[in-house]
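TEACHING EXERCISE
Course module: macromolecular assemblies
Task: Read the component lines below, then compare them to the predicted structure of the full complex.
Student: A.B.
Group: 4
Components provided:
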Amino acid sequence: MTERGAGMATDIAEQPEVYGKLLEAPSVAAIEQVARAIAERRPKHVVFTARGTSDHAALYAAYLTEIRLGIPAGLASPSAITVYGARPDFSEALVVGVSQSGGSPDLTEVLKIAREQGALTLAVTNNAGSLLNQTAELTVDVAAGHERAVAATKTYTAELLALLLLVEAVKGGGTVPAEERAALAELPALAARTLEDETPAQLADRYRFAGRVVTTGRGYAYPTAREAALKLMETSYLAALAFSGADLLHGPLAMADPDVPVLAVLGTGPGSTAMADVLHRLGERRADVVTIGSGQVAEASARLAVPAVDERYAALLDILPLQRLALAIALGRGENPDAPRGLKKVTETL
Amino acid sequence: MTERGAGMATDIAEQPEVYGKLLEAPSVAAIEQVARAIAERRPKHVVFTARGTSDHAALYAAYLTEIRLGIPAGLASPSAITVYGARPDFSEALVVGVSQSGGSPDLTEVLKIAREQGALTLAVTNNAGSLLNQTAELTVDVAAGHERAVAATKTYTAELLALLLLVEAVKGGGTVPAEERAALAELPALAARTLEDETPAQLADRYRFAGRVVTTGRGYAYPTAREAALKLMETSYLAALAFSGADLLHGPLAMADPDVPVLAVLGTGPGSTAMADVLHRLGERRADVVTIGSGQVAEASARLAVPAVDERYAALLDILPLQRLALAIALGRGENPDAPRGLKKVTETL
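Instructor-supplied answer key:
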């Protein structure tokens, strides 16, 4: 019998290698081919559909699509189509299903209907033989290899990187620009360095008896906040509430007090600036704030340090210490994050 | 000095009257005029933008738009535009800002940019003189009157009803069909009857010492679950986690145990059927489930009863006992829901 959490620990540790593999010429070439098909079709809007962890990768891709490509993008709820029988006119749309397993019947149904309704369809999965891949016109394989734990880690970051490469290739007219390739080539080493920091294990003790935690971030950092919350729920059974920095101020801030730890993903660039007011307001409520990112913040009681990179890339590094934190809290509580109670690896919803 | 919570109690009690007023001929005619302008323009997709409570009304409207009109619809994050300077091509889009106050600078900025980028723009607010109204090409006044408490109640349900009327008027080619008008005319009386039930006050005692609560629903019932969670956070400082029924099964289910109360909004029709598996899985985890809706469920330990109506209308009734529950829990905990700590009525985010 293997050690508790050994699977999740291995999955987490493999992420630098997964980045390296996705950045190799054949993977990039395959993604560029998909990008050319999208660029030719010139969709007027992009609809992402996903569940769970993959939904956070889709959210990241929606920000990239709007900011980098100037194409309106949003996340669709599968249930409008699968439960209520909606048949939207997708003739000007690219519809993208993101799924680690590619085995979710509702996403497959959405892509099938979207294709019938005129959409260009794309499946982004870690399972090239999946039903979702067979249903979509275009496919991207995130090639993260077998994931051991039920809680997704390396498949999440592989989805992020594959979607980043795809968007930059569409922007580049079908090719990821050389300077982008050069900058991205640093990622595996930066990820390895981020994973060396032992602060997550030390911090885990601090949250041993926390009943709830708030995670927050803005823009590119918001998907990281959402994914961190899901990891903490899945592995450590914490009530983890994720809010965009702006939404936090619209109500949930009232809940913050010295008993509620806050994990604030700062990001870099404009998203980081936008978080300043949020941190100030959290400080007024005497919330206990731990920051994630490259910057120092006066209000914070601790920090998970991550190397400074372009804000688009930060999502690929910021989540790493948070995955380790979730793993360490779970182990500290005597749980087994490789097989959380009540969960299966492939979740089938209709 | 007025009694704690008197403002919120009055706001809640006024909802049947607000429904009645919105359903009068002049309000409906004003909404139909906006619907005609939208029907003429034939947008290829609809982008909603909103914060906090209004975001849940926008989510409801997105479901309606896809299911009733067959037009792809999604919720946009303002930050892509306001923080990162994205300039999406909105030439085929209707962009709708939903805001109680119409005073949020980020939503105003999104509508301004969207209009410059070719969108047809619409402001749905409770403040006809607001900056958001001045920025948009089209406006809908939800006419809920002055709201006393910081936590929004009657402005939320007024937004729901105004958006429902708008979608049905677009579907009807610029007129709300007579049979729809007739069915909606029952709503004020049904709302008044729903508000007479004293179960929320009795249930509040049950949650006096709960640290966290999960709310869930699918499709049309999901915005209700989200809004109930926000009310509980704002007024009672509970850690309230909202999940679509499907997303709950993708991870957060692991967190459910007998110590975590679950408020399950059943809805009627297809959404209700889709919740059956969710309730079964919650039962396996021995979660304490309270249902909201017209149906009886074996797994439930208690029920907030709501009259049976078309699933589209259920959102206008299901939230009522949940607002009262939030108010009663807040009062039971000695809080003042009219003025939650750390919050203001108009939240200004950038």
